[in-house]
Specification:
The structure is a homotrimer of 143-residue chains.
Chain A (H helix, E strand, L loop, with lengths): L2 E4 L15 E4 L3 E5 L25 H18 L7 E8 L2 H16 L5 E6 L2 E2 L7 E9 L3
Parallel strand pairs in A: 4-5
Antiparallel strand pairs in A: 1-2, 3-7, 4-7
Helix pairs in contact in A: 1-2
């Protein structure tokens, strides 16, 4: 692997950390992914609300769709979830949504740990019902 | 070019996509730009409100100024709008502002597509009237 | 140094700029750090509020803890505050908190200038009392 998790004093398996404090890129190729949500990756601009008719209200289902979307981008770039080095999560209404989002995402990320940041924003751009947007930077093998 | 747009199944010209789902850096030099707004790039710290007296209220004019600011940073770094690989847009009051912002930015970006994320935040730091901050990562030719 | 500050016309020492408009990476290794706050870097997931019992309310003290946390990550990665190339600051209630945060951070950053972005978010994920999260990208010497 070209990436190396960065840890400081104090790590312990019982914390069950879903991310690593830092991650070092030792080579390979960076991939920047656009923010993905539960809405289809490709859609009209300006937005046509009808294209988002099947966006689920459930935060866990939204996380599932967003991770599938992110996975498809990473796969197309020659990587996968294990290629993510930086993941920013923009979430609406953390109190209501973060537990289900975390549960679903843990299933997709498996043992992989990326540098990660989570903040609560007012809303997301594509559709007002969306509660999660994932923005990733990844490193994939070079040519 | 050292950058390669990443696409997954489903792309179609009729979506008129203003960004690419992912973008791969194959070489060259990364440039990280500070967030830019319609306020002057250089200003006093702590802030002096009088320096922002001519910040326009109109979101389209703000987008124009912010893009000019970003362009000047990218040019100084040896690149241009076509060098952007990641663009995060922090916007205040999406419902009111995003359509004019999108129109203006499309004119500056032309055919270039970067990985992009847009979220609605509470406010921006430099001045409470600002509604758009653009944060870019770019790749410019090596020495 | 492998990093080069990018400046456009108009810079002047009297602005006392706490960041550089852009920064170019000419070599070395990128480090992405997770968002850090005044809460301990390692903690249980799902969160256990009791682990955050000593998070200070004072924004200046929060900035001090967050910078100590960030410093420990950067040191573990082979760098330091001077290695930061991109710094995103997510702040709650800018009007109340940004002045003390800026004062404390200036002391840690010294003469170093990174590309920087600051936005006001609704809240941060780890604990509802937190008012500052710092997300950094850094470049450290290669092996």
């Amino acid at each position: 692997m070209n990436i190396e998790p960065i840890h400081v004093e104090g790590n312990d398996p019982r914390w069950n950390m879903p991310y690593t404090p830092g991650i070092k890129v030792r080579g390979g190729h960076l991939v920047f992914a656009s923010g993905v949500t539960a809405a289809p990756i490709y859609h009209s601009h300006p937005h046509v609300p009808a294209e988002f008719h099947d966006v689920p209200d459930d935060p866990g289902l939204q996380a599932e769709r967003a991770m599938e979307n992110l996975g498809s981008v990473l796969t197309a770039a020659g990587g996968g979830f294990g290629s993510i080095v930086q993941l920013i999560r923009f979430i609406v209404d953390l109190d209501r949504n973060q537990d289900s989002i975390n549960r679903v995402m843990a299933g997709y990320l498996g043992e992989h740990r990326a540098a990660s940041t989570t903040v609560e924003v007012v809303r997301l751009a594509t559709d007002p019902r969306l509660v999660l947007e994932l923005q990733a930077v990844a490193v994939v093998p070079g040519d």
